[in-house]
Amino acid sequence: MLEEQKRKLRITFAGGAGSVTGANFLVEDVLSDGTVNFSFLVDCGLIQNSSHADPANWRTWPYDAKKVDVLLVTHAHTDHIGRIPRLLYEGFQGKIISTHPTKDLADVMLEDTIHIMSHDHGHHIEKMYTEENKKKALSYWTSYEYHQRFNISEDITAEFYDSGHILGSAMIKIYFGNSTILFTGDLGNSPSPLLPDTEKVEGVDYMVMESVYGDRNHEDRDERRKKLEEVIENNYTNKGTLVIPTFSLERTQELLFEINSFVEGNRIPKMPIYVDSPLAIRVTDVFEKNIKYFKEDVKDQILKGDNIFSFTGLRETLATEESKHILKTQNPKIIISASGMSTGGRVIHHEKNYLPGKENTLLITGYQSAGSLGRKLEEGAKSVFIMREEVPVHAKIEKIKGYSGHKDSDHLLEFVDGMVDTLKSVYVVMGETKASLRLVQRIREYLGIRAFSPEENEVLEIDFYKTKTK
Ligand SMILES: [Zn+2]
């Protein structure tokens, strides 16, 4: 006999609501008597504002880590996976599920987070961020291909769609009862130099979507290539050092790919180009192992024998001594280094050395969060504090917006528009409040779809019916 069971899917916006970083969404399958049948998380990221790890990371979670059954991971950026060690420390013993490349990248990214956090104390950080917890996380980890639908519980299944944001990045479509909900993770700024375009997803009823650039548009790709070439040429003429603070994951590889094409096409003058980030070097290795996830024309280029991340003049500096030696080398030169928002890493040493020189240039290529050193430089600060020392800024500050890994406002809207026939509600998260609210307003006004921007720890419930054999 068939029985119709009334259930609720309850979503708690535990992180990434009202802020770009710290993505963490709890989803519970609640029975009609109010008991929780099953629960899973989507992402467990670090909150990263002006520092690598904001104190807000250690606030009590609105859930018990021991009772969470599954963690689904959209992609390997630290603001989506960086609190996994805390989850394990608090007793999580469930499965972690992502695409194959995300698992490979998470290994490298978590290693780096542990390395950075090992210098922090308090809040039991030193007990969370251990090599042992990383190993445990990887032992819990299962990976699937895009479009390989899998069960996360008896009644709920999921499927990964390529979001085109970074290698392995996925939107996660959840099927429950007769409804679906899509967690977008971060949405790629397609066309990307390396990755396929964001896939079209059909039959989505509810959506939890990112909005980093909900209120702004980017320069287009031809513009950004032209600007990059121009900045490199000007640096050569000025006999300066061009410092590019950049994200180790994806942005560095995109830049190497673009510079590779400039060098091989003899479009820029010869000068040494340093990749001064051990993490970026390791991530590039993972990219080289996962070329089947690149877009078709990049795969063709590789098949023809081009090593797309390597060219004459490129120097990778793994050891600290090699990094320090860069200062003694002659201009003109280029230094690509992390972190991307100048919140730490080797790049701040280069900034301290090169910002005072008017012959030098600092090139910002991505989103800079409020309060970060990168944001201060982007906003034209005349002097900044680096490692407690006041540093005058005489170097030129240049910006290329088009290198962002995120869709801009118009493309986010276009993405929502592609699902307009089935969408019932859109929950706009992972953006600064102003950006999220602007996107909410645009979705309502232009597309006539219900849209909301939930606050942190806000809870929403979606009714659904499950047919069961009695
Ligand atoms: Zn991301």
Globally, the shape reads globular
The proportion of residues in beta strands is 15-25%
Mean pLDDT: 94
CATH class of the largest domain: Alpha Beta
Q: What do we call the CATH topology of the largest domain? A: Metallo-beta-lactamase, Chain A
Specify the structural class: alpha/beta
The CATH superfamily name of the largest domain is: Ribonuclease Z/Hydroxyacylglutathione hydrolase-like
Strand order of the largest sheet: 6-5-4-3-2-1-22
- Bin the helical content: 25-40%
**Unique bound compounds:** zinc ion
Contiguous runs where pLDDT drops below 50 for at least 5 residues? none
Write down how many β-strands occur, each being a DSSP E stretch of 2 or more residues: 22
Description:
The model has no long low-confidence stretch (mean pLDDT 94). This protein is globular. With 470 residues, it is of the alpha/beta class. Strands 6-5-4-3-2-1-22 form a seven-stranded mixed β-sheet. It has a seven-stranded mixed β-sheet with strand order 7-8-9-10-11-20-21, with helices on one face. It has two domains: 2-216 and 405-469, Metallo-beta-lactamase, Chain A (4-Layer Sandwich); 221-403, Rossmann fold, CATH 3.40.50. The protein has helices at residues 78-81, 84-89, 100-117, 125-128, 131-140, 221-237, 251-264, 278-289, 296-303, 320-325, 347-354, 373-378, 409-417, 433-447; strands at 2-15, 24-30, 36-42, 70-72, 95-99, 141-144, 150-151, 156-162, 170-176, 179-183, 206-209, 241-245, 273-276, 314-316, 333-337, 361-364, 383-386, 389-392, 396-399, 425-428, 450-452, 459-469. Helix 13 (409-417) crosses helix 14 (433-447). The structure holds zinc ion (ZN). Residues 75, 77, 165, 186 line the site of zinc ion.
